């Protein structure tokens, strides 16, 4: 998947500015697809030039004009094309795993400290995802039905974080034995 398709997905449901998209990334897709501020604005420009997006400039009193983007019919067609295409399984590039693999060349304390930092991040992420799940489960049934597929992505995130923390506990036990 590329950033352009993530942006098309976000704009399919609701037009928005670059700032709006960054907020939507943070609140939803950001748990499993990362995008930096500059990347989003650069991609919006490219998608507009490709004819997949159009924008309306909205005047703001104290700031430059805000561009509110929406999909064009060509952008919608590209999104449908991409959705029909198979995606490749994810490949992992995880520096922590490389460091742990090479752990015989460093100290146990170094590995423990590294693991503690990562555990803190994963616990915080899990807590955030569980908060989102609680909000989802508190919704009326019709609203939950409309969000059932995004909920499945949330469940994947929750299960992934729980699994990661279970694995980290195994690593901690092994490091304590050494």
What structural class should be given to the helix and strand makeup?
mainly alpha
**Rg over C-alpha atoms, rounded to the nearest angstrom:** 20 Å
Q: Could you estimate the helical fraction of the residues in percent?
A: 55-70%
Number of strands: 2
Head-to-tail CA distance between termini: 41 Å
Low-confidence stretches: none
The major sheet is characterized as: 2 strands, antiparallel
Q: What strand line-up does the widest sheet have?
A: 1-2
What is the mean predicted local confidence, pLDDT?
A: 90
Instruction: Give the SSE order as H and E letters.
Output: HHHEEHHHHH
Question: How many individual helices?
Answer: 8
**Beta fraction of the residues?**
5-15%
- CA-based shape: elongated
Describe the model.
The chain contains eight helices and two strands. The chain has 178 residues and is mainly α. It has a two-stranded antiparallel sheet. α1 packs across α4. The longest helix has 30 residues. The model has no long low-confidence stretch (mean pLDDT 90).
Write a compact overview of the structure shown.
With 178 residues, this protein is mostly helical. The protein contains eight helices and two strands, in the order αααββααααα.
């Amino acid at each position: 998947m590329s950033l352009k398709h993530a942006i098309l997905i976000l704009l399919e449901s609701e037009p928005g500015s670059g700032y709006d998209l960054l907020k939507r990334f943070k609140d939803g897709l950001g748990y499993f697809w990362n995008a930096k501020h500059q990347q989003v604005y650069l991609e919006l420009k490219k998608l507009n030039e490709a004819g997949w997006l159009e924008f309306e400039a909205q005047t703001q009193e104290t700031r430059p004009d805000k561009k509110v983007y929406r999909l064009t019919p060509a952008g919608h067609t590209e999104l449908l094309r991409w959705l029909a295409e198979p995606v490749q399984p994810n490949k992992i590039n995880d520096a922590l795993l490389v460091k742990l693999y090479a752990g015989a060349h460093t100290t146990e304390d170094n590995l423990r400290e590294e693991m503690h930092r990562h555990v803190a991040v994963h616990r915080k992420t899990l807590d955030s995802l569980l908060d989102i799940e609680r909000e989802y489960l508190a919704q009326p049934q019709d609203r939950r039905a409309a969000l059932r597929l995004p909920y499945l992505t949330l469940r994947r995130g929750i299960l992934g974080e729980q699994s990661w923390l279970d694995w980290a506990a195994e690593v901690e036990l092994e490091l304590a034995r050494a």
